[in-house]
């Protein structure tokens, strides 16, 4: 019997999907999320400075903002008007990065005061939480693209919170005891509502914002210096990537969104590559079969650019309620908010992005933000 069990165990180890779990002792928090030290970065525009009154005004606009009301009035299943919360947090992150990189104490102090203002105002806390979400209809109810989508309200609030925590980590060493208490209280409150309910949840469909919340959980683990949580999260999301990314590189749901398949595929690839970069930096070893899937996914980003019809020819038999078929709503290019997907593809997979003129033109509208809020850092600030 023991011999039989040993043979079974060996078989599992030799199979393509078996890999050693990450342990807490493997984890090393770099201190600043994506790096050990924040340095000046030419990819972040100099105008992202708290010395610029318009920057401060933009960031302050989100303090206590009623995202729930905004989303209800201005968004639906197919369209999310999120600039009112995503632009201020990206500007906050970019300006904080510049302040620290330039060792500008005046601007660092302004960053701290804004961070605390957001916390004291319980910013975005009134947005729908995951548990409340379960009582709401799903997006695209009755195949109606104009139907309300409460999941988007939750998703963008949760993503915003992840980026807030990253900024807090960058500023943590600058906070005094009183300031730290205020920020920590807010983070714990938001974590309980937006992150804890989805931790380690098995997703059956798609790879989306902040790695389906996985990146935000890693950020929280870093904030609380909880290596056990970080290791558990990496093991969980590696399994999720293994399940949701097929051997040929297509992504469950993302790649099969009809006339927006290319857009959502590159969105998912960008987030997966960002996640894997962080996991490796923190001490994880990426299983070979997952690495192979990511390489194939990156190659498909290129296939969608060079031969969209061939990219779309792959059939999908799963739930596809959010497939978009109206040619008028097509987005035939790489996701423009993945502002450095080319850099991530080369670093993580060794695949060079093909020339995508529409993407290159449209991302110019977002590179001035200085940050990729889908993953919480700008890959062009990685020092190699």
Structure description:
Helix content is 53%, strand content 0%. With 384 residues, it is an all-alpha fold. The protein folds into two domains: 18-39 and 206-384, no CATH class; 48-198, no CATH class. The radius of gyration is 21 Å and the shape is globular. It starts with a helix and ends in a 21-residue tail after the last helix.
List descriptors:
globular, single chain, 384 residues
Total helical segments: 16
% residues in beta strands: under 5%
Order of helices and strands: HHHHHHHHHHHHHHHH
Biggest beta sheet attributes: none
Determine the N-to-C terminus distance: 51 Å
Q: What count of structural domains?
A: 2
Average of per-residue pLDDT values: 94
Count of extended strands: 0
The outline comes out as globular
Q: Specify the structural class.
A: mainly alpha
**Radius of gyration over alpha carbons?**
21 Å
What is this structure, in a nutshell?
The protein is mostly helical and 384 residues long. It is 53% helix and 0% strand.
Topology:
Elements: H1 2-14, H2 53-60, H3 67-74, H4 83-101, H5 105-120, H6 130-133, H7 150-171, H8 177-195, H9 209-212, H10 214-223, H11 227-244, H12 261-281, H13 288-306, H14 308-312, H15 341-349, H16 357-363
Helix pairs in contact: 2-4, 3-7, 4-5, 4-7, 5-7, 5-8, 7-8, 7-10, 10-11, 12-13, 12-15
């Amino acid at each position: 019997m023991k011999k039989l069990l040993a043979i079974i165990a060996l078989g599992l180890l030799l199979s393509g999907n078996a890999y050693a779990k990450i342990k807490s002792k493997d984890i090393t928090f770099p201190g600043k999320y994506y790096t050990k030290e924040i340095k000046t970065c030419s990819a972040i525009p100099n105008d992202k400075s708290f010395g610029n009154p318009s920057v401060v005004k933009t960031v302050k606009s989100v303090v206590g903002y009623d995202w729930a009301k905004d989303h209800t009035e201005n968004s639906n299943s197919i369209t999310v008007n999120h600039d009112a919360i995503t632009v201020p947090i990206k500007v906050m992150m970019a300006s904080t990065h510049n302040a620290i990189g330039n060792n500008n104490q005046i601007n660092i102090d302004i960053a701290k005061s804004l961070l605390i203002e957001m916390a004291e105002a319980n910013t975005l806390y009134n947005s729908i939480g995951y548990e409340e979400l379960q009582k709401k209809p799903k997006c695209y109810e009755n195949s109606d693209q104009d139907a309300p989508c409460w999941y988007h309200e939750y998703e963008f609030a949760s993503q915003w919170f992840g980026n807030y925590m990253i900024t807090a980590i960058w500023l943590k060493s600058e906070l005094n005891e009183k300031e730290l208490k205020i920020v920590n209280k807010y983070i714990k409150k938001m974590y309980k509502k937006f992150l804890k309910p989805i931790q380690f949840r098995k997703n059956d469909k798609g790879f989306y914002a902040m790695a389906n919340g996985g990146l935000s959980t890693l950020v929280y683990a870093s904030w609380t210096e909880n290596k056990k949580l970080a290791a558990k999260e990496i093991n969980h999301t590696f399994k999720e990537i293994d399940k949701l990314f097929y051997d040929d590189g297509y992504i469950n749901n993302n790649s099969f969104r009809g006339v927006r398949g290319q857009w959502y595929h590159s969105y998912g690839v960008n987030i997966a590559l960002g996640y894997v970069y962080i996991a490796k930096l923190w001490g994880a070893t990426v299983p070979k079969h997952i690495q192979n899937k990511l390489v194939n996914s990156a190659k498909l980003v290129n296939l969608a650019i060079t031969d969209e019809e061939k990219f779309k020819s792959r059939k999908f038999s799963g739930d596809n309620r959010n497939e978009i078929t109206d040619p008028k709503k097509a987005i035939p290019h790489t996701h423009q908010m993945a502002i450095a997907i080319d850099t991530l593809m080369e670093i993580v997979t060794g695949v060079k992005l093909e020339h995508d003129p529409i993407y290159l033109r449209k991302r110019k509208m977002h590179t001035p933000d200085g940050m990729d809020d889908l993953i919480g850092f700008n890959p062009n600030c990685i020092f190699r």
